[in-house]
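During data preparation, we tokenized the protein backbone, and the record follows.
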Amino acid sequence: MQNHYFNEHSYYTYSGYANPDNLPPLTATREAPEQREGYHPKWNGNVWNYVQDMRGTKYYMSDGSEDEITEIEGLLPEGASLTKPEPTEAKKVKQRITEIQQKLTVNDLASVRPLRAKVAGTATEFDDARLVELEEQAQALRTELATLRAE
């Protein structure tokens, strides 16, 4: 025999041994709750009701920020949506500018070894070809960056 405990909000918390000679405590019942996927048992004084368990549900605000519901019957804040909003064109442009800047930094770092070989007088055809390739990539990125900034 078991007691099935619930908290101050009547949500099921755990089950434990029950002395058959005693009544259950005020925060327990002898009626076992069912386990239902996506739902949490809540004692109404007579039977278990099953409320949708919203914990862990991600939601998005109109500014694109993301948060998570932490309460069993948590409600979405005003203006929130379960669907991630599409970024605005301005935000897409800003993201692309950031990507280009990161690629240019990587490109610059990739140029160091072949440039060092040139300065040392030990450059090979591969080093020369690599520098040409990196400069072409950088030029394309700089052109795109200038276009995005002009918009």
